Amino acid sequence: MKPRLQFFNVAPDIMKQVMTLNEAANNCGLEHSLLHLIKLRASQINGCSYCVDMHTREARRDGETEQRVYLVSAWRESPLYSDRERAALEWTETLTALAGHHVEDESYDAVRAHFSDEEMVKLSVAIGMINVWNRLCTGFRAVHAVETAKAA
Fold this sequence. Notes:
Structural class: mainly alpha
Number of helices: 9
Helix content: 55-70%
Shape: globular
Radius of gyration: 16 Å
Low-confidence stretches: none
C-alpha cells in the first residue's frame, strides 16, 4: 500500500508530544511483557498491520515466546496467560472497542482485582497510546518492514 501522509514530517510539534507520552507510557512501571501484550491485542482489534508487525517483533526481541505471541488473539482460550495478563487483555479490549458500548462494572471490577488504582491509570493510558498509534498508522498507511522487504 502506498502511504498517504508522513505524519511526523507534517506535524512535528504534536508528534513530539505524542512521542513524549509514548515514552512515559512505556516507562510507567508496568511490566514490559504486559505492555507488549496490550499493544499487540489493541493493534489486532484495530487491524493495524504496522503495529501488529512491530509489537510482535518487539515482544519476541524482549523474550516473549512465539506461542504466547501467536495466541494473543485467542487469549481467552489459552492457558498461557496469568490472571493479571488476562485482566489487562480484557481491559484492552473494553477500552479499544468503545464504539456503541459502555464500560460495564464487571469489566472494571475484573481489572481492579489485579491492578492498583495507579496501575489502572497507567494501563489505561498505555492502551490509549497504542490506540493513538493505530489510528495514525492505519489512517495514513504507515509503511512497515513487511512492505519494505516485499519491495526489495
